[in-house]
Design goal:
The chain has about 150 residues and is an all-alpha fold. The protein has eight helices and no strands. Helix 1 packs parallel to helix 8 (about 125-140) and helix 3 (about 40-60) packs across helix 5. The N and C termini lie far apart (about 50 Å).
Length: about 150
Amino acid sequence: MSKAALLDEERREHEALVQLLATVSPDAMDEPGIVGTWSIREVLAHLIEWQAMVLRWVAAGERGERPSVPAEGYAWNQLPALNEAIRLRSAGQSVGETLAMWAASPATTAATSVQDAAFAAAGCVPAITASLAASVARRSRTPTSSPSRAGST
């Protein structure tokens, strides 16, 4: 797939997810279980941070630097710990803040400046966006209740 085609697909999937998320209530955005035990808001915050990390890697490489991958203080075999750290950092974000960050997320806009050779690695982004959209759509068609939240005060 060419860079232009991948960018077009990512823009379409990103916009479709933004539109779908606009139909989800704030309470549903924080309901656990969309992916594992994570909520929609937590998954979005996770994707936003990973997009930013990838762009930092590319920018460092273009400057001739060696980026810290996957992140400073983490090795590839520590991804669960890194992902949990990302989830905890985003815990204080409101649903509105996370949605605004997602709507303005850098994947599409910044990716247009990435060299074609480096861009090939981003091929999974539209698929990830589409997968989250499918999960959100399935959940919105299926009434959910959280027994752990029912009856709590």
